Amino acid sequence: MSGSIDQAFVTQFQAEVHEAYQRQGSKLRPAIRSKSNVKGATTIFQRVGRGTASSKARNNAVPVMNLEYSAVSCFLQDHYAGDWIDKLDELKTNADEIGVLASAGAHALGRKTDELIITALDLGTREAVGTQAGQTDNDGLTRAKVLLAFEMLGAMDVPDDGNRYAVVGWKQWSELLTLPEFASADYVGDANLPWRGMQAKQWLGATWIPHSGLTKTGTIRSCYFFHKTAIGHAAASEIVTDVTWHGDRAAHFVNSMMSQGACLIDDAGVVRMRCKE
Predict the structure, then answer these.
(1) Is residue 223 helix, strand or coil?
(2) What is the pTM of this model?
(3) Which one of 43, 160, 259, 262 has the fewest CB atoms closer than 10 angstroms to its CB?
(4) Would you state the pLDDT for residue 192?
(5) Architecture of domain 126-230+266-276
């Protein structure tokens, strides 16, 4: 049983239980390539290389592109989030404690999904680091660093097809808000102002997302500019919740679980922006 359940008692708190502030599920899963209903402990994502067009002589065979195919394995992991609710504790609160714990477990597993995706992003090797002002590790997220990452994606012919994404920390999101090109209606128009909602916005042909779970090493926060097809996510089991009664404990056990994994498919489609924080 949770040792903090007494904090919800009506003698100390209002009838409605307010969950602690936390990210509401996965924010990054819609931004990557995903497959569901996977059978087994691993699955394969196919990666296709570039083809080259060429001419042919009259009546000769059409030349083949000789595309290079490769397979990337994605390993799935099982994750659980559960807790006990004592029967007599339920009598002392007006809140639906089972519903609260089920929701909290789903949110915890949603954050775990993002953790798996961020771990895959961390495997990328291409970094937007230059020698010009604003492009070094001693800088935060600057206009120069963003444009360098933008150039690197373009140089690798990463499609600018509406499926580019950028995920940054909240400190870096605050730094972006100081850039007129990001936050001023004179540049992005009224529809794409970040002030309309702090969960995502469109800029430079990409969807920008603030996130609190990005990897931080020392004073460096790793932010990413990437294409949706560069990262793979697989789910053998979506998040499910089971509630069972245990008479020997006189309590319900609320258990949420999932089986998912993530992998780096194409290193060329991911650019890391190292930002001092």
Answers:
(1) strand
(2) 0.84
(3) 160
(4) 73
(5) 2-Layer Sandwich (3.30)
